[in-house]
Amino acid sequence: MLQVSVEHVSIAYERTTVLKDISFSVEEGDYICVLGENGSGKSTLLKGILGLVPLQEGTVSFHGETERTHVGYLPQQTQTQKDFPASVMEVVLSGCLNSKGKRPFYLRKERETALYNLKRLGIGELKKKSYRNLSGGQQQRVLLARALCATDKIIFLDEPISGLDPVATSEFYQLIEQLNKENHISVVMVSHDVGTALKSANKVLHITREGCFFGSKEEYLQSGLGAEFLHAWNGGETK
Ligand code: ADP
Description:
Blueprint: E1 2-13, E2 16-27, E3 31-35, H1 42-49, E4 57-62, E5 72-74, H2 79-82, H3 88-93, H4 97-100, H5 108-120, H6 136-149, E6 154-158, H7 166-181, E7 186-190, H8 194-200, E8 203-208, E9 211-216, H9 217-222, H10 224-234
Parallel strand pairs: 3-7, 3-8, 5-6, 6-7
Antiparallel strand pairs: 1-2, 1-4, 8-9
Bound molecules: adenosine-5'-diphosphate.
């Protein structure tokens, strides 16, 4: 079932176009790996789909039960955000903000959802801890729990494993795969860790300055673009 369709989207910052003519779609259960060189516009595309930056051209449509406000989003983390002075529970609860609206307090149901998602990711015991004192892997799980408070349909992840050690990276990938395969949550993930990310993905969106490739993982791996990108990545020329 179609969840999101992106058609001929271009995005500009102050009249400089950074993304040109991107089209792809998300079907229920997809695991889409978003690839491209640094600065090719991957983060910008996620923000455009979520309505956080305006589109210059094209359309983004949400279908069926999927609404823009019910998409879970795990943005790239800056150093300042890693030092955010709040408890784990407060950070996860903030994922319910779209349903909370202007109400100045959280409902019991929202607290239960937050706790459910913490436990689901194996970190229920961290709920009272200070977010800034957690390890990188724990912080990413907390942010994933936060994203899941907004959705049980689709999550967008922007380089979620960046800065994690190999063990935390592998555990995080397992969690994402579990959410995708067992809970049928669609995944759209920007990752520099191409080889590992591709293992779980069923489709690839590769953004270049000239446009994009979108297709199944098998089609991508057989395409010239896929072979070239993987070769460069294996040789360490591309991150
Ligand atoms: P990627 O995620 O592929 O590394 P980004 O989407 O972060 O790429 O950035 C795409 C281009 O847009 C880059 O050249 C970047 O410098 C520029 N850019 C990103 N955010 C902004 C912004 N808020 N204002 C102006 N330019 C930006």
